[in-house]
Amino acid sequence: MTTLPMVPLTFGDEKPTRRASMPPTHLADMDLAGRRAAIAEAGEQPFRAAQLSNHYFGRLERDPAAMTDIPAASRERLAGLLMPRLLTPVRELACDDGDTRKSLWRLHDGALVESVLMGYPDRVTVCISSQAGCGMACPFCATGQAGLTRNLSTAEIVDQVVYLAGVASSGVMHATPRRLSHVVFMGMGEPLANYSRVIAAVRRLISPAPEGLGLSQRHITVSTVGLVPAMRKLADEDLSVTLALSLHAPDDELRDELVPVNQRWKVAEVLDAAWAYAQRTGRRVSIEYAMIRDINDQPWRADLLGRLLAGRLAHVNLIPLNPTPGSRWDASPKPVEREFVRRLREAGVPTTVRDTRGREIDGACGQLAASEGEA
């Protein structure tokens, strides 16, 4: 076994690998009461907070110049106070007849993050980033190999959703609803390592306008590689979001290598925290499992995973690996994948294979940012 990278042993508001600055405050960083207070302190009428918020969350309008029901002088002042530009588009790529759209953003300090909009006949989903880079060091993940630059602010997280909800509402995608319905925290970063801002973002997304975007919390998924203290804390948040656990191996020997945080919290402890979340919330846990050729796709590992999950409130989401350029990791062959699925289902574990989207547009998380950084 090779020497494994060390990973952070803390779980909340993870420290960056290098000096970075947070962006200026945006209205999405605050609840409605906080926005009123900030506006009143600036000498404007507090009711302007609801006007600004209705434009941003209700109409998905991010350009203050378009908010013409606010007097021009007040609009300029309020925009400078509460609507700084957080995301600057660098590249926007589309595939699947325009129904998959990947965005690369540059933040105020030059950091790069990605998000993806995916349209389906019955829903529209956005996959968003919670950190620029990631400190979890999973060797098969492009983002994990880049290291952590910094946590995103609450508003930087929310702004990805608002922007892409606006894209969906414009009708540019084909045969899909125009209203964004689902959000998955599965982009760049470990969401539970930026705990406080991610939870604040979730609350902003589920609060009705003008407080927030008014999404169903049952349509929000928060992923983790298994930061046990944060998982247990999440169970106490009185939220009904879906918890997605990136397991990727059922045995500690392999998971120590694939998911280095397993050196701190072993498979049994991570699963115990997942079952505690399921029991507290009544929500089925999604077990994420990247299928990696000749690494974690053996039949005996399918059988072991089946034994660990049988009878639990869980669902396995098998992910065909999207290899990064130059990587030694590759996707499992389809016959191997089908046998893995068969064995899990035979054990009574609900199992699906994730729809592969965006392979031709650097679909794996972190690939687009990495290619831009190398340009």
Give a written overview of the molecule.
It is an enzyme of class 2 (transferase). Helix content is 34%, strand content 18%. The chain is of the alpha/beta class. The strands form 2 sheets. The protein has a 10-stranded mixed beta sheet. Helix 5 (154-169) packs parallel to helix 6, helix 7 runs parallel beside helix 9 (267-281) and helix 10 packs parallel to helix 11 (334-346). The longest helix is centred in the middle third of the chain and has 16 residues, at 154-169.
Number of helices: 12
Largest sheet strand order: 1-2-3-4-7-8-9-10-11-12
Q: Provide the gyration radius in Å.
A: 21 Å
Large-scale geometry: elongated
CATH topology of the largest domain: TIM Barrel
Quickly list its features.
375 residues; alpha/beta; DNA polymerase, domain 1; TIM Barrel; 2 domains; ten-stranded mixed sheet; two-stranded antiparallel ribbon; 12 strands; 34% helix; 18% strand; elongated; disordered N terminus; rRNA_lsu_MTrfase_RlmN/Cfr; tRNA binding; EC 2.1.1.192; tRNA (adenine(37)-C2)-methyltransferase activity; cytoplasm
Summarize this, please?
Residues 1-23 are annotated as: Disordered. The chain has 375 residues and is an alpha/beta fold.
Summarize the SSE layout with pairings:
Elements: H1 32-41, H2 48-58, H3 72-82, E1 88-95, E2 100-106, E3 112-120, E4 123-127, E5 131-133, H4 142-146, E6 148-151, H5 154-169, E7 182-185, H6 195-206, E8 220-224, H7 228-234, E9 242-246, H8 252-258, H9 267-281, E10 285-291, H10 299-309, E11 314-320, H11 334-346, E12 351-353, H12 367-374
Parallel strand pairs: 4-7, 7-8, 8-9, 9-10, 10-11, 11-12
Antiparallel strand pairs: 1-2, 2-3, 3-4, 5-6
Helix pairs in contact: 1-2, 5-6, 7-9, 10-11
